[in-house]
Every structure is written in structure tokens, then in C-alpha cells.
């Protein structure tokens, strides 16, 4: 049977997809580079052509998971017809609802064998989403819609608080809605808003 030749981008994505599945099934610490290449059906040299180490492919897995919420948050930030308050509410909603869409991932990431993956994912979510959220806060401040002395730190704390909610992989829909409503009230308090909630 002839060997299937794949393009570099397709092969790299295949390695990332298999690595993610194995990390979640076996745990990051219990998955080796050999396991990944065996599953894909390529030589170890192929792996090292794309990734310097297992840590490197873990970073790629995490970055891929954050792509979708980041794109949504950037899209919200660019909506000219919404003020900063509603943009922030929508952004918070995107992050909170990431928990529902990725329930299986969240459950696996919180297992002890995936501690490194868990820590890296939390740090990367904040690092990638906070700058866009900070920009919205600063724009709202410039227009008099928001008030805070620490826009960057406020964005980071807000995202960290939402991530904490993601530590509850078994929350039901009713509790999630209550958490969401509480989050919107907290947003109003953070920015000292007097308008309708």
C-alpha cells in the first residue's frame, strides 16, 4: 500500500490533533512523543521537524483551543454599533460559555495528570484575551462610559474570575445562568455604572 504524502500544514495539524487527543485520554505526563508519532504513523524525525519538544506541541494544542474565543472577542471589540459596556458583557459571555462548548476538555484538563496543560491554558487565555478587553475598557473610558483606574488589571482580573468558574466542569445549565447573571452585575459594579443592568 502506497504511503500517503501530506502537505506540511496538514501533517502539522494532524500531529497537534493526535497529541491533544492523547493528552486528554492518557494525561500529558503519560503521553510520549513516541506515542504521538506511532498514532500518526510517521517517524520521530517528522515530529521534530515541526516541534522542538513535547512542551512545544502542548503549546500548539493550547493555542489552538484559544483561537475560537479570541476571534469572537476581537469581533465583538470591532462592533461599532455597541458601546463598551455591552461589548464587555458579550466578551464575558464568550469566555463563560467556552465552558459549555468544551466541557470534555475542561474535565480532562482538571485531572491531576494534566496539571501542566491546565496551568499553561489559564495563563495563555489571560495573555491572549486581556489586551483586546483592555482596549475596549480604555475606549469606554475615553468616551465616558466606563470608569476604572486600572484598565489592564481589571481585564486580567475579570478573565481570571471567569476562568475560576471554568473550574466547575459539572455545573448545570441553571447554575451557569445564575453565574452569568451575577457576572453581569459585577461588571456594572466594577465600572461604577448607573444605567440599566
Question: What would your notes on this structure say?
Answer:
This protein is mainly alpha-helical and 197 residues long. It has two domains: 8-54, Homeodomain-like (Arc Repressor Mutant, subunit A, Orthogonal Bundle); 62-190, Tetracycline Repressor, domain 2 (Orthogonal Bundle). The protein is 73% helix and 0% strand. The protein has nine helices and no strands. The chain is elongated and about 60 Å long.
Bulk shape? elongated
Structural class: mainly alpha
The low-confidence parts are none
- Through-space gap between termini: 64 Å
Global Rg? 20 Å
Q: What is the name of the CATH class of the largest domain?
A: Mainly Alpha
Q: How is the CATH topology of the largest domain named?
A: Tetracycline Repressor, domain 2
What does the main sheet amount to?
A: none
Order of helices and strands: HHHHHHHHH
Mean pLDDT: 83
Structural domains: how many: 2
Tally of strands: 0
User: What's the oligomerization state?
Assistant: single chain
Query: Percent of residues in beta strands?
Result: under 5%
CATH superfamily of the largest domain: Tetracycline Repressor, domain 2
CATH architecture of the largest domain: Orthogonal Bundle
Report the total helices: 9
Helix content: over 70%
Amino acid at each position: 500500500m502506497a504511503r500517503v504524502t501530506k502537505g506540511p500544514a496538514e501533517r502539522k495539524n494532524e500531529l497537534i490533533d493526535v497529541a491533544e487527543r492523547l493528552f486528554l485520554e492518557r494525561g500529558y505526563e503519560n503521553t510520549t512523543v513516541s506515542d504521538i508519532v506511532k498514532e500518526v504513523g510517521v517517524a520521530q524525525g517528522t515530529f521534530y521537524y515541526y516541534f522542538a519538544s513535547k512542551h512545544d506541541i502542548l503549546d500548539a494544542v493550547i493555542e489552538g483551543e484559544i483561537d475560537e474565543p479570541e476571534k469572537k472577542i476581537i469581533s465583538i471589540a470591532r462592533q461599532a454599533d455597541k458601546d463598551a459596556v455591552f461589548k464587555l458583557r458579550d466578551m464575558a459571555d464568550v469566555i463563560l460559555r467556552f465552558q459549555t462548548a468544551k466541557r470534555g476538555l475542561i474535565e480532562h484538563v482538571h485531572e491531576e495528570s494534566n496539571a501542566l496543560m491546565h496551568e499553561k491554558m489559564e495563563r495563555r487565555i489571560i495573555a491572549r484575551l486581556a489586551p483586546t478587553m483592555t482596549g475596549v475598557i480604555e475606549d469606554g473610558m475615553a468616551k465616558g462610559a466606563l470608569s476604572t483606574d486600572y484598565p489592564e488589571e481589571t481585564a486580567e482580573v475579570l478573565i481570571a474570575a471567569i476562568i475560576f468558574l471554568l473550574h466547575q466542569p459539572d455545573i448545570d445549565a441553571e447554575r451557569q445562568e445564575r453565574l452569568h447573571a451575577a457576572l453581569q452585575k459585577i461588571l456594572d459594579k466594577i465600572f461604577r455604572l448607573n444605567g440599566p443592568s
